[in-house]
Every structure is written in structure tokens, then in C-alpha cells.
Amino acid sequence: MRYTMREFLWILISILCLVLLPWWQSVLISALVGVFLLRLTERGFKRRVVFLFIGLLITMITFHSSRSLVASAMSKLFKLPHYAFLAILSAGCFSILIALAAESFLWVKYSFRKVGDKLAPNQKLKPKKA
Amino acid sequence: MSAASEKRPYLLRILGTWGVFLLIALVLSIPLGPLPPLGNLLSPATGYLRNAPSSSKRATALNVIAEGVRANVSISIDSRGVPHVVAMNDFDLAFGQGYATARDRLWQMELQTAATAGRVSEILGAKAVEFDIKQRKLGFLAAAEAEIEFLRKNDPEQLEMLESYSRGVNAYIKSIDSSEWPLEYKLLGTSPEQWTPLKCALFHKQMIWILTGQFDDFKFTNALQKFTKDELENLFPDFYTSGLPILDTSVAQMSTGDLDSFNAPTPPLKLDGLLQIADLPLNKSHSNAGANGSNNWVVDGVHTGHGYPVLANDPHLDLKLPSIWYEIQLTAPGVNIYGTSLPGLPHVIIGFNENVSWGITNAGVDVIDWYALKFDKNKPTPNYLYGKQWKPTSVRKETIKIRGQQARTIDVLQTHFGPIAKEYELEQKTGGTTPISFAMKWTGHSPSNEFRVFYSLNRARSVVDMKNALRSYEAPGQNFVMADKTGSIGYVQAGRFPMRSHGQGRFVLDGSEPSNEWNGFVPFSHLPQSWSPDRGYLATANQQPTRDAPLGYASGDWGFTSYLRGTRILQRLEAQTNPNPTTISALMALQNDVVDLRAKAVLPVFFKWINGKSRNEMEAKALSLLADWKFEMSANSVAAAVWSKWWEFFYNSVWEKAFPETFFKRPSEDRTTELLLADSSELWPRSANIPKLASLPDLALSSFQRAVETLQRYADRKGTDDALPTWGAFRGTRIPHLANLSGFGIDHLETGGNGITVNATTETHGPSWRMVVTWVEAQPRAWGVYPGGQSGHVGSNFYSNMTRDWQNGELQELLFVQQGMLKDSLTLQRINLENPRLENNR
Q: Among residues B201, B426, B691, B776, which one has the fewest Cβ atoms lying within 10 Å of its Cβ?
């Protein structure tokens, strides 16, 4: 399977977990699954956050619009002008958290490897300038 | 580059990533100030999005294994969200009612009883401690416990009914996981607690307090320092001579036989200083007597076009979401009842069955007295003077659990009158303050068995059955009107009212004087009542029951509400039933009547007073609108807004100096109207700070100018500066959430009416349930509506779905199932509560 496909598969699993399980369970499962599906790359984190956020945002907007009564009430409670802001807030929080969890677990996985193998080819960290 | 320096960036990255991850996870896991843990709340699997039960997605049939049910129970939810509970026996019926009610109103049930018991600190933390202390001192918890004990000894069957109801509630709690808990639990970070019969008793006590917990003893006692008793009699008559009472002499049928002698009032207690009442946990909505009340009326079958009685009822209470009422139909062998129940209590409170219907309004009789106590400070345990001896108090230790803090234990002192509910600082004329303690005597502290009364009413087959059931009714005192299929109608002001002589119980009483004790209660035979009178109709609207006080009766310190609403209803019923019979639709329309009889009486006088006085363009416009006005407080009327503010400013300017509201009760608006219409310098009070009769025209003019100015300012703010606002836009009605969560309530509805019109809608108070019941071809037909909806879940389609019809004064037909279960085609969801021990359910 191509790596991009594996990344999208991971995003899909993460969204599904979040929709079906308590948030901390879904974060753990996403991270664990990420250990097998993802690679630690220099730009991988940002890319995963962005795609995860977009995926979650679409999911959240759909959920909120199909449950607009409770979503509107909650947005008024939080003094937000529209429930879309709640969807953005949820998607934002959980996409960063899940991506960070996956990243953290990946670092653990890679920490067992030799230093030179920690990153994918051509994406090694550049040493800081002295 | 050494290996160590190459490792450092990785180490930093690992630590950094884990650190940020754990930090965000922590922030999402812990409460942030008033906010619950955001992770749980925002999670689509467990958070608020789970609190949107969509009717279309709900299972149409649900089988629940229910421990504690004796036979299977079926609950069918109709298209209005109303559960129709069918059971094989009374206990299972209570179980089903508990289950159905919890399904829709669990959080409401829990909050209401927690507030009554003084347990809000367990939910909200330290900020609710003072409230809880006040609640504990009022003795609700002890009274509820006593009521359960009373049932255990005297009516174990009703106690078993409460236990069944509780098991039903608990079965529902058990059937859901935390993601399905009502949203309020998630927001407050609490969890549902097991329901018990004690909570039913607590809710019963709360209802008694809401409906009878009003008093002005302290304010009247303060008034003794400024006014003579005769002046007070003139300003605060016990029974009015104007307006129409509930019963005139032609229809009143209570006994006037001798009662055992009761005490003449002792001279009122005079205190050297003023008592502040502001910090007592009063229900503020009830402090304005003019805005508090309910309507009910009944017309017999002779005076209706279709030959059957018509009964209408609209109890007025604080408007909240979720509503205080919950519609339900309960069917079991021997009972088939439909109506509104109170979430937390079994049985139907207002409703109808195949044979009878009934409605209630608050009686408004004074059932609270306050006794000032003198303590012996030299004794280690508090003793108070009674007669010529010192009586000991008993001490009840109450532990208040506080969320996030250590529990606090307080002593609630109990006297033979009742709990010491208030220790005031008396503000003395000479400066400084003196502590003074008061015991509260309240009929609600005594155990009573209204559970049995409503159980019997639910199963009544005639007006006679209902009359018999009401013989043991005690609290809260209510005006019951009733009808049966045969055409009989009836009325009784049922309750346990202390016998009083004129003026007794109006002021704070001297607790050391034994003659200040209550001396028995008005017997049922002497309570105001009427049974199928010739005139063919009966109506109540919280006004005085008769022109003169019935024997043993006095309104005491609280008093009845404005008689104008009742007068209007009785006038309309007289006009509608004579000479031709009335119709169902005419009686329905009467619930929406918004004619303000005070405006009708007072405006001509005001016009005369300000006639010819200079006025600006807007004032001239307002006057011209008022001149063409039909005295209807309609939502779209500008004149109604002008009149309302005009009268409010006039009334306040008459009394504000003599009766500052912190310390004094003001003469009622009815009495004010009587005094100014009498235009008699003999009647008009001459005390200091009360404007002279001759200055009233000037007050009327300045009040009018202020009223127009106020409305103009409002229009300016709204950007409609060329037009004064309508009554609906200016006043409107707000229906807040029970815990005042913004977004969970309704901020503004354009409504008409006021506290003294038949449609008694005010800013946050009004008809909490409108019901009209009759029979057509011997089958019951009924209509009803309330502001809100069946569900207490903000995400439900049934949360506030009836509000629009309520606002428009429209009624919805109630689906009364004659026999068996609701048809499948009319059922949104069927819930079967199954006994796991029954053979078929295994």
C-alpha cells in the first residue's frame, strides 16, 4: 500500500474511533494504529494535522447540522455566534491531540532504532547551526 | 559531531511532543473554571452531540429488562411525545410513570429535589452553601422524612406506590450509559443519583412551598411603626368589597354552623426597629400578588350547546424549560387517566378520565405564621420562653456536602412551632442591630397524604367521588373545579387552613404568648364549596372565595390575588351562558382574553385629570392611541404598552415613599384603584409620605410623561424612533432554563396579557398549562398546550415544540386512548418494560 494511502487510512480510523469511542480511548487507539501505519517524517506531522482537521471538520459540521437544536443551544451557552465554531473547536482540539499522540508514539517506536534510521530517507533532521 | 550532540535534537523532540500531547490531554480532562472537562463534552461519542435523540432515528420498539416490575408494562410515545403507559396493576403503572418521566426529565427531577433538600452545594460547590443553609433551616428535608414515616404507618400502599415509581426511575437510569445522561449532567460534571420515595416527598414539599410559601408578616409588622391599625385596615383589607368573589350567596353551599371558638388575635407585637426580609429564600415571582395565579372554570351540560360539561384550567406558574408539567396517560385495571403530572410524583395532578375532569387554582389562604422567640442566653442549650416557662429546642444536625470542599454541619433548631428559620439582625432606630430569632409555623411541615387524594381523583367516576377524595386533601390549598359525564359540576376550596379570626396571623406573633397558637383547622364542611348550582357555571381565579370571610377564615398576611381576573371570567361566563348556551370554542377563547379591567376603570379618570395639559407630539400620539383602545393587552397593541407603563409609574409614585419595598408591603393595585376611584378624601390615607388626593392629577401627568419617555427610549435603542413599541415587543415573555443556562431557554416571545387579564402571561410567569375538557357523544375530548415540550433534552424535537401554539393561544388535541394500547400507526416509539422473571421474557 502506498504511504499516502496508509496515512488516509489512519485518518479514517482516527475519525471513526473518535465518533464511536470516548475521546481518550480514540486518541490511544489512533496513536497505536499510527505506530503501524505511519512514518516519522519531517513534514508528516503538519500534513497529518491538516488532513485530520479537514476530515474531522467535515464530520463535525455534518454532525452539528444534523443535531442543530443541541448544537445551537451549546453555541449560545459558549457565547459563539454559530454552531460551526463549535465544530471548528472540536475538530481543532481533537486533530491536534490525535496527531500529537501519534507523533509521540512514533517517537517512542523510532527511539529504539539507531539514530540514523530514525527518519525516513531524505527527510533527516538538519543539525542545528552552531 | 559526537553521538551525544546528535541525540539531543531527538530527545528534545520526543520530550516536546510528549509534553505538548500530555498538556492538551490534561486540559481536555479537567474542569476549567465553571466548564466541565472539554474532552468529554466535545467528544462526538460521549459529549453534547449524543444528547440529540432524533425521533426518526430512534428505535420504534425497545424492550427493556426492568427489575422490580411485577408484570410487563408498555409505554407508547405518541406524535406529541406523550407517553401512554399501560400496566396490569397500580404498582406497575407507577413504575411505568417513573420510567417514562425519567426518560424525558431526569435531570429536572434531580435538580428540583436537590434544591428543596438543600443539596445544591453538592452540584455547584461552595457558592450554593448559603442557599442550602436557608433551605435546611426551612425544614423541608425533615418534613419530607416525616411524610415518609407517616405513609409507612398510615398508608403503606401509597408508600409502595412511591417505591414502584422510584424503581421505574432507577430502571431508566440503569438502562442508559453515561453518554446518554442528560446534557446538564455533563455540563455540571455530575451523575444521576438513585431516586427514592423521599425525593417524591421532597418534591411534594417543594410544590407546597411554591404555592403557599408567601408571607408578609414581617412587612406588616414594620408597618405598625408608621400606621395605626385602622389605617392598615383601610389600606390592606382582608376581604374586598369590590370585584366578584368565587361564590356569591346564591351558589355558596358551605356550612355556616358554629365552629369551636378560636382565639381573638392578641395585640400585635411591636418591635423597636425594622425587619428586613429581602434575604429570605422567597420565590420572587410570587412577591407580586397581581401576577400570580391561575384560572379554572366549569360550565354544566345544561348551559353548553352540546349537552356535556366543559372544564377549563390554566395554572399560572414560573415559566421554565423544561416545563414543570409532564403530560401522560396512565391505564391499568380500574384507571384510565390523562393529564399533566409533576416530574417526581406519581399520578396525574390535573386531568380527566372517561367519567370526570378537574382543574386547580391556588387558594392563597395564609398557612404560615412567624413567632418571635425570646431565648434564655444563660442556658447551654437554647431555651425559649413560652407562657411562663422555658421550653427547650431540639437540635437537628444537618450535614451539607460541598463539591470540592469539606462538608459542613449546621444545627437546625426546632421549636414546637416549627424550625427557627430565620435569625435577623433588627435594625434599631437608635442605631446598631439586635439579633432576634423567628420560628416558622407552616402547614407544609405536617405530613399529609396528597398521594392518596390524587390516586383517588385519578380513579373517580363522579363529582361525588371527587368530593369524597378531597375531604382528606391538605396542602397546598387549592380551588378544585370538577365535572362529570352526567353533567354535574362542583367546586371546593380544599386544604388544611388554620382557623383564624379577623386579622389573626397578619403580623409577626409573640412566641411567648400561648394564645397566639393555632386553634384547629377549618373543617371540610365549612370550606367554600358549591355543587351543581342553578346558574350552571363555577369559576376561580385566586380571588377571595366569598364576599365576606367564611367562618374561621381570613386571608391573613398573604391575601388573595387581584379580583379583576376572576371578575372578568365570571362576567364573561354569565354573558356566554345566558340566555343561550355557550360553546366549547367560546370557552377555549376565554383563556386568551386580554381585557384589562383596571384600564377600563382607571383610564377615564386619568384622561379627565390630564385633559388640556400641555404635551409634546409623541405624548399626543400616545393619548390618541389610548383613546381608541379597547383595553386589550394584545401583543400587537402600542396603547397596551403605554397604559402598562403609565399605571406602573403612577402606582409606584403613589406608594414608593411611604412603603419602600425592602421593609414594607404596598397596598394592592386593586385597593389603590378602589381608593382613587372613590375620589373620597375620607378614604384616602393622610399619612406622611403619601401624596395628597389633590395631587394625584399631577402624578398622573408626570407618570404619563415618564411612560412615553421610557417607551421612546426603548424605540430609540431598537432603531424604531418614529414609533412606540408594541406591548409584545416591549414586555414580551422569557422562558429561562431551570438552571438559567443561556441558550437552553427562550429569550423573548411576543405575548399579550398581564397579571390581571384572563390570559395572565407576564415576563416570566403565566399559564403553565392550558387544558379544556368535555365529552362528545359520551366520549372524553380534550385539548391542551404548555410552553415547552415533553422532553427535557435540549436537543430533542420535543424540547419546546409546543411553545409556538401556546404563544398564539392555540390548543392541541390530546390523544386519549379509550382501551388498550396506542395504535401502531400513532406510535413513535413503543417501550416494553419486561419482568425478567416472567416465563415469556426469558
A: B776
A101, closest residue in chain B (CA to CA): B21
Cell of B799: 424540547
Contact A127 B7 (CB under 8 A): no
pLDDT at B355 over 80: yes
Cα B131 from chain centroid (whole Å) = 19
Give me the residue from A59, A94, A128 closest to B9, CB to CB. A128
pLDDT higher than 50, residue B354: yes
Residue B475 has pLDDT above 70, yes or no: yes
Q: Looking at the partner chain, which of B13, B45, B793 has a beta carbon nearest the beta carbon of A18?
A: B45
Write down the pLDDT at residue B646: 97
By the 8 A CB rule, do A56 and A18 touch?
yes
Residue B590 lies in a domain: no
Instruction: Cell numbers for B650, please give them.
Output: 403612577
Identify the residue with better confidence: B575 or B612: B575
Interface subset of A 37-66, CB within 8 angstroms of B: 59-60, 63-64, 66
Residues 6+ apart with CB under 8 A from B183: A70, B48, B51, B107, B793, B794, B795
Q: Is B694 helix (H, G, I), strand (E, B) or coil?
A: helix
Q: What is the mean pLDDT of residues B668-680?
A: 89
Per CB-CB distance under 8 Å, the chain B contacts of A86 are 42
Nearest CA in chain B to A106: B14
- Measured CA to CA, the distance from residue B802 to residue B790 in angstroms comes to 9
**Partners of residue B385 on adjacent β-strands:** B390
How does DSSP classify residue B571?
A: H
> For a pLDDT cut of 70, what percent of chain B falls above it?
91
Task: Check CB contact under 8 Å for B24 and A125.
Answer: no
- What is the predicted ipTM? 0.88
- Backbone φ and ψ of B2, nearest 5°: -75, 160
Cβ distance B6 to A115 less than 8 Å, yes or no, reads yes
Domain total in chain B = 1
Residue B626 lies in a domain: yes
Q: Where are the alpha helices (DSSP H) in B66-128?
A: 90-117, 121-124
Say if B56 is an interface residue toward chain A (CB within 8 Å): no
Q: Is B51 on the interface with A (CB under 8 A)?
A: yes
**CB neighbour list of residue B279: distance below 8 Å, 6 or more residues apart:** none
Q: What are the distances in angstroms from CA B417 to CA B219, B449, B574, B587?
A: 21, 21, 45, 45
Q: Please, how many CA atoms are within 13 Å of residue B244, restricted to the half-sphere of its CB?
A: 21
How far off is chain B from A22, nearest CA to CA, in Å?
6
Q: What is the pLDDT of residues B822-839, one digit of tens each?
A: 888 889 999 999 988 876
B45 shares contact with chain A (CB less than 8 Å): yes
When mean pLDDT is compared over A68-77, A103-112, B196-205, the highest value belongs to B196-205
Identify the bridge partners of residue B339 per DSSP, sorted by sequence position.
B328, B351
Of A70, A101, A125, the CB nearest to B52: A70
Instruction: Measure the CA–CA gap between B333 and B325, rounded to whole angstroms.
Output: 25
Residues of A in contact with B51 (CB under 8 A): 70
Per-residue pLDDT of B734-759, as tens digits, reads: 999 999 998 999 999 999 999 999 99
What is the structure's pLDDT at B232? 87
pLDDT at B22 over 60: yes
| Nearest-angstrom CA–CA distance, A104 and A84 | 30
- Interface contact A74, partner B, CB < 8 A: yes
Cα–Cα distance for residue pair B505/B88, rounded to 1 Å: 49
- B796 and chain A in contact, CB less than 8 A: yes
* Chain A CA closest to residue B1: A127
Q: Which three cell numbers stand for residue B538?
A: 363555577
Give a yes or no: residue B552 inside a domain.
Answer: no
What is the mean predicted confidence (pLDDT) over A25-49?
88
**Considering the domain boundaries, does residue B121 fall inside one?**
no
Strand, helix or coil at B641? helix
Alpha carbon distance B64, B175 (integer Å): 8
Work out the number of other CB atoms within 10 angstroms of the CB of residue B456.
18
